[in-house]
Amino acid sequence: MLTDTRRWLWRALAVLFLALGLIGALLPVMPTVPFVLAAAWAAGKGWPALEAHLLNHPTFGHPIRHWREHGAVPRKAKWLACFMMSCSAIMLWFLPIPDWLRWGVYGTFLVVSLWLCTRPSPPTGP
Are 74 and 116 in contact (CB under 8 A)? Predict the structure, then answer.
């Protein structure tokens, strides 16, 4: 009984992450790939068929495998993420929000950018 409950909880988490990834595919303010990575992780715990489907997906399969095998993020994704955070930071400057919140977001952007840029790029070749 406990095993079935765990399996269903992992499946629910995988579906939640996939739904968030789908929202991210439709909305430019939300990422897609991190949620698909999380969905593959959760599916690996309780839904092997979904995990296999994600690993063999033509769009998301390669990034998932590169992340799992090397902790790698494509250079193009790094540049795009840093560019989008920079654009968000500029837009945030003109919003009427408290300074502590603005600088907290800037600090978060900085930490995420530094972490992201230190990830290796995927290996090239077959």
Answer: no
